[in-house]
Amino acid sequence: MIAEPKKTRQDNFEPRGDFEPKIVGFLCNWCSYAGADKAGLAQIPYPPNVRVVKFMCSGRMDPQFVLQAYANGADGVLILACHFGDCHYKEGNFRATQRHRMLLQLLKQEGIEEERCRFDYVSASEGDKFVQVVTEMTEAIRKLGPLHRQFILKAKGDS
Hints:
Blueprint: E1 23-28, H1 32-41, E2 50-55, H2 63-71, E3 76-81, H3 92-109, E4 117-121, H4 127-144, H5 150-156
Parallel strand pairs: 1-2, 1-3, 3-4
Helix pairs in contact: 1-4, 2-5
């Protein structure tokens, strides 16, 4: 019986190298940001790849902000809203859901994978869910690799 050689780091080398994704997270102040805060207070470990932008309401998130995040180097965008019925501004999460659907169509036209822009619901009591969503998003973007920057030139107006 011949033993297989141990795998080294070089055997597991991928063409992308040690890629660490840059993810911009747009979080609702009342629910999603509070959920992130709960995860932090509970000291639940999660990937440090998400840079948080706090909004008073997810309905305030404009698709232009997402495009700007990609233009400024983000590999992925995470939009987190209140659950339906929990919005402090009554219907902001409905608006955010509609804008996300429209945004996915726009990103598809620009050649950006749908997986790079995730929308989800996290309440103030769901620190564990926040960690799960961030971890899943980070892993998904790692698998996709860096965003190809041809889109960036168009977004900034540099042809």
